[in-house]
Amino acid sequence: MANEVIRISKKIGLKIKLLRNKIGISQEELGFRSSISKTQIGLIERGESSPTIDTLDQIAQALDISLKDLVDASKIDL
Questions:
Q1: What is the pTM of this model?
Q2: Nearest one of 22, 24, 4 to 78, comparing CA atoms
């Protein structure tokens, strides 16, 4: 169970990083847009932190995508 949570966190983190890079913003800018620290964004992107649903929603809004689309990491292989 714990390994599955870690794997999902890494997939979602990678997706956030890919989406952020796609729109050409830094971790700092994403943090500003989402009211989350740059440090926390980095931890999430590396899969070192399991964000709450509220945090994921803030990030999704900052990336201008739905929360559902953000957490759908089914097409990301690690």
A1: 0.91
A2: 4
Q: How would you write the pLDDT of the chain (78 residues) with one tens digit per residue?
A: 678 888 889 999 999 999 999 999 999 999 999 999 999 999 999 999 989 999 999 999 999 999 999 998 777 766
Given a contact cutoff of 8 angstroms between Cβ atoms, the answer to whether 74 and 12 are in contact is no
> What is the SS3 string spanning the chain?
CHHHHHHHHHHHHHHHHHHHHHHCCCHHHHHHHHCCCHHHHHHHHCCCCCCCHHHHHHHHHHHCCCHHHHHCCCCCCC
Cβ pair 33, 5 in contact under 8 A: no
End-to-end CA distance of the chain: 17
